[in-house]
Amino acid sequence: VQMGRDFEYRYHAPHGASAARGGARADLRVKTAAGWREWSDVQLGLVGRHQAANAAVTAAMLTELVAQGWSIPDDAVRRGLAQVRWPA
After folding, report:
1. DSSP 27-74
2. β-strand 35-43 against 7-12: which pairing, if any?
3. What pLDDT does 80 receive?
4. Which residues share a beta bridge with 26?
5. What count of Cα atoms within 13 Å lies in the side-chain half-sphere of residue 7?
6. What does the pLDDT average to over 4-25?
7. How confident is the model at residue 67 (pLDDT cuts 50, 70, 90)?
8. Confidence band (pLDDT; 50, 70, 90) for 5?
């Protein structure tokens, strides 16, 4: 599974007050055998284009697990990406 071929993302950098609240968002697209799976306007708990890339990798991995029979609800993916924290 390769970024740019099987999955991609679009990062929406936070501005103003939403930056202070961790308001980064991303659109994630993952290609599967059945076609493209999309999550739009996903809230990210971590800010930065590289974090959106990491979220896309996570979405691609979870899509592969679902294709193998795992039960992972979409709302769990959204919640997980929004709640992740990396205290400094």
Report:
1. EEEEEETTEEEEEEEEE-SS-SHHHHHHHHHHHHHHHHHHHTT----H
2. unpaired
3. 93
4. 11, 42
5. 26
6. 74
7. confident
8. confident
